[in-house]
Amino acid sequence: MGQKKTLIAVLGVCLLFLVVVIGRIGSADINAAVLATKAVSPIPADKIYDPAAWGKYYPLEYASYLEASDMSEKPGNFGGSIVFQNSTRQPEMLVNFKGMPFSVDYAEDRGHVYAVPDTLETKRINKNSRAACMTCKTPYVESFFKEYGWDYASKPFSELISLVPEDNGSISCANCHDPNTMELRIINPAFIEAQERRGIDMSKATLQDMRSYVCAQCHSEYFFEPGTFKIVFPWDKGLEVDKVYEYYAETPYGFKNDWVHPDSQALMLKVQHPEFEAWTTGIHGKAGVSCADCHMPYMQKNGQQYSHHRMSSPLRTVKESCISCHDQEEEWMIDAVKSIQDNFWVLQRAAGKAVAQAHEAIMKAAAVKGADESELNKARELVRKAQWYWDYVAAENSMGFHNPSQGMKTTGQALDFANQAILTAYKAAGLQL
Length: 433
Prior knowledge:
This protein has helices at 2-26, 30-36, 51-55, 59-66, 86-89, 92-96, 115-121, 141-148, 157-161, 173-176, 189-197, 207-216, 241-249, 275-280, 283-286, 291-295, 318-321, 330-366, 373-394, 404-429, and strands at 223-224, 231-232, 259-260, 267-268, 298-301, 304-307. By secondary structure, the chain is mainly alpha-helical. Strand 3 (259-260) and strand 4 (267-268) form a beta hairpin. Helix 19 runs antiparallel to helix 20. 38% of the residues are buried.
């Protein structure tokens, strides 16, 4: 009898263990289970870019999507949807981006529902801006590409934005879902082309892959091909920061720089929010945790399970986003994230300030009569590289959390390159520190 009780107890423990393991393994595929329990309702062809039309069939998802219009603080000291100029917290940006539009307007991003209004309001857009700027702001880009191919990118911004309704034309359901089947999809052709160049067959992407790819089609680094304004993702050599810089060093498609810095005269590059790159090479990406697992967690309401479509910081939904995999308490998780971000902020500021000082040092050295032009050019390449490494983490929207180890390394490299640029500038001018 005693042996039977022991055996039952052991089996019970084993069963409980299996339930926990299967639950955690299965959490990656929960989206398939949720979709399987929902009746698929195709969206009328004339309404596919109107999120309200989707909301009639998927009210919980739609209601959570609309929560992105709430401009409120969140736990932590970074991110959120409160509008402010980043240069007010980081005045070094005014020096580092001098001579280009980000020195004029570098407002903190708001939620997806504001993508079109914010694009219309930003001072970075002017009469010469091209429609390529709209690619990741609206699902209407799908129709533009179908009609014009890549030629849409070089059309005047004003021409195509006039076809997008300001009140409901922002990033929404059709950016990520097929309107007939609700399956996840990619509408940004640049992402598909970049994956093909990496040897990745998108037709073989798993559901869990797609739960990150739909985000990656916009939350990634890119540049405009000179002349055509075609969007290119610079991943041919790899997703790591140094690999991307190596790629740019080879002037792909004739692309050399985004602008020339007026002080240092260095040929500069501007980084665009490389969240996908940071996540992919970070611990969560390597572990197979998707973007949606954390930023679009599964919630319960009125006995129904749905994916939360606010697409915001996991710090707003720690229980659903983090505790489903981690054993720690919510408060512990929040403190852990804040600690990483607060420490990262210190290094980011130090690197940004050093880059600004390097631009100034090169300008002063160049003004010295008889300055060695060869050494000045070396200093310019060093400050270009320093700013690239600094901006790669400053423009990434997780304040280091997506990949803390790479972020710390990259800011350290930015500091090193900036200091080398300063020393080389002094050498060019024959000066001593």
